[in-house]
Amino acid sequence: MKIIAHGIDLVDFERIEQMLERHSDRFLDRVFTPREQADAAAAKNRIEKLAGRFAAKEAVMKLVGTGWRDGIAWTDIEVINSALGQPQVVLSGRIKEIAEANGIEQVTLSITHTSNFAIASAVALQG
């Protein structure tokens, strides 16, 4: 497989907390799929989990290179965990169409956290 693009993003936990305080369920429903919301609710640190998923979505958008336009929704990018706990990206809707048109066959993802920040790195693969 050949690396064809990379995206990275850093999110401050406080930013996510503020969005939840201001917009609550509206923010959650706009940005996170029902499965992502359930996974975060079951996690030891909900904010950490949400921030990691938010950073991952931003990193994927950066590697695709379009930004949040052309009918792309936050929920077109879903971050789930494999049976072993590795984060995985599931694309749907418009972002999937754009990724496929750009030759992206697979996206690998890594997420890590500090006490205040989450960072995600996404790599697009082809071949």
What's the arrangement of secondary structure elements?
Elements: E1 2-12, H1 13-31, H2 34-42, H3 46-64, E2 77-81, E3 87-91, H4 93-101, E4 106-113, E5 117-126
Antiparallel strand pairs: 1-5, 2-3, 4-5
Helix pairs in contact: 1-3, 2-3
Keyphrases for this structure?
127 residues, alpha+beta, Ribosomal Protein L22, Chain A, 3-stranded antiparallel β-sheet, two-stranded antiparallel ribbon, 44% helix
Give a short summary of the structure.
The protein has 127 residues and is α+β, with helices and mostly antiparallel strands. It has helices spanning 13-31, 34-42, 46-64, 93-101; strands at 2-12, 77-81, 87-91, 106-113, 117-126. Helix 1 crosses helix 3 (46-64) and helix 2 runs antiparallel to helix 3 (46-64).
Largest sheet descriptor: 3 strands, antiparallel
| Top-tier CATH class | Alpha Beta
Helical proportion, percent range: 40-55%
- Count of runs of 4 or more consecutive helical residues: 4
Write up what this structure looks like.
This protein is globular. A three-stranded antiparallel β-sheet has the order 1-5-4. Strands 2-3 form a two-stranded antiparallel sheet. It has helices spanning 13-31, 34-42, 46-64, 93-101; strands spanning 2-12, 77-81, 87-91, 106-113, 117-126. It is of the alpha+beta class and 127 residues long. Helix content is 44%, strand content 31%. Strand 2 (77-81) and strand 3 form a beta hairpin. The chain has one domain (2-126): Ribosomal Protein L22, Chain A. Helix 1 crosses helix 3 (46-64) and helix 2 (34-42) packs antiparallel against helix 3 (46-64).
